[in-house]
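Protein modeling request. Please complete all fields; requests missing the sequence field cannot be processed.
Requester role: graduate student
Desired output: 3D structure, token encoding
Chains: 1
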Amino acid sequence: MTRHSRIARFLRSTRHSLVVRLTRFRYTGTLVFILAALLSAVLCALPFMPVRRSVPVGTALDADMVSRRGIVYVDGARTEDLRKRARDEVAPIYKFDSSRLPAAIAAFEEIMTKVISIRAQDLTMDQDSQRIAALLMTSAGATTKYLATCSESEVQSSKTAARQALTTVMSRGVLEGSLAAARESINTELKTYGVSDNQVRSAYLLAARFVSSNLIFDEQATLLAREKAASSVSPVVSTILAGTPVVKKGSILDQSTVDVLLSTGLVWGPRALRNVVSQILVAWVAWIAVALAIILLGSAKGRTEHLLMETGVIGGSCIAIGWLAGGVAATMTPFFLCMLLGFVFFEGTLATVFGLALMVMTWIMVPMPAEVISGLVVGAISLFIVMRKANKMSALLIAGPIAGVSAALVYGALAGLSEQRLSVIAANAGYLLAGGVIAAVFALGLTLVFERLFNVATVMRLRELLDTGSKLLAQLFESAPGTYHHSLNVANLAAGAAQRIGANWLMARVGGYYHDIGKLLHPQFFGENRGELPNIHEDISPELSTKVILEHVQAGVTLGGSNHLPPEVVDIIAEHHGTTVVQFFYDKASAEQTNLSPDTFRYQGPKPHTRESSLVFLADGVEAAARSLARVDKPALEGLIDAIVNARIADGQLAESQLTLGEIAAVKDYFLTSLISFYHVRDAYVTSEEANERI
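Delivered output (695 residues):
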């Protein structure tokens, strides 16, 4: 191994951080992810932990009991007091006993029959009066004498009046315990009939004794009505602000205060346990959603452990920052930071799920007013719109302030409708605006830290490198146009194959763009850039030609490093020829010399060690060879692809590639389909006339 090769390997090995080395262990990413989930669950549950373990009634507090978080709770004592009042306001319910009036009328008719029978007997007035008094259970007097001596028409008139008054009064309903009042109502009713005083008195005597209560208290219906009234009373909701003393030092706890402490979860009890468990479960559900997004979306195939580690470290860091910040004002920055880092490091759905999961956990740790939450949601949406197609890191400095402004405006509009003080509204709006700006700055800084920590290129950085107007690609287009177009074709082949097998298509495309930048050193030595110029290699030895060609790999590595390309992209540049032999010049030299070692004509490598690097390696060979075909059709392309890929496998070039045989077959199939489309290959049986007609 040459000194140059040893230095290259050393530089490559030193680029790998401790975290990347750890990822070589099978389940390191899973372990880090689980630890982050546990840490987040603990931090989310801490604000809901009880202030004290227990506080018996009669305890004198030796210090203020201060709530660590804002609490909205149902005041049980006040609610029950209002419900008791509602119950008391419900009048008793009575049911009408319709059988009482007919019974009273029947008894009345029976008595009247007996009165008439007594009058018909041949007795003295006093005897009739006494017998009627005995029948009516009263003492003999003027009224009984009137009944004994009055005419038949007067008796019938008294009977009719008595019956009518009895019916009227009892039809109105007579309550238990109000018989005296009901009987007085008989007398009052009779006086309205226009009969004589004697008839009023006699009718009253006849009817009053038959009045009975016919409104029976309905205990069950009354109870139901009172409970319905009580249930209609909304619970009294009370609010305890964070940092507010719930019970002050020296207070003697009574039962109602202890009930408040239990209902708010400030003291260990069922409510406190439910609060803590629910926060832990919500945090875990959020992390499970992230894990499912990584595992099920398909783009993470082969990178699951690495993505689990990235999401674990980044997510855990954001949650820790949010917890350390504390308070609504300071939490604005971690909130937006979660979303920004999600779009910087991850793609599409995973970025969205990651950002939303961390947002939910931030809300759990620091409960916020509805107006603030609404502002943050709108800010997150605006951030999503700006970042989803952003391809430059500078987009962070635009997205953060836009999110902050959007959140502040929405919050201000909603809070203005409430009774909050203008000073509070202005302060919170300022916090939202500042949170977006500060989050953008933090995101830029943390991106650099995490890139170094994980030794990976972020999604945002890779998108930035796809800009064909970038410095290196612009130089390549100007100085080596053939290589430039070859690189675009290789990038398309590698990216499409990566999507087919679930590898990182973005990395494969960027690697394809930059894999041949080393040819900028001597572009005229490579056939695709020669054009109509004479072939330089015809005038120099095969060894010198090989030396120049081999140099383009190390030149690319050096150029990539000096232009701060991500380490993975530089690795692809270093590995895009593996340790293959420059066969053409080796064969040419062998024809002139004997016992020639192929190592002189061999690339120093290393061999491709990632799937993305392997795809660029294969696409490079296939694309270059396809352009040299004299006859381009499906059989020729299929044979070419099989020959190149099989030769690479036989030479051991894919031994470290992490590609399976099934994936290699899928890659070959994609290469064939793509090249057929690229070269517009038509079936052999189609005549030129038919082809012209189709065009």
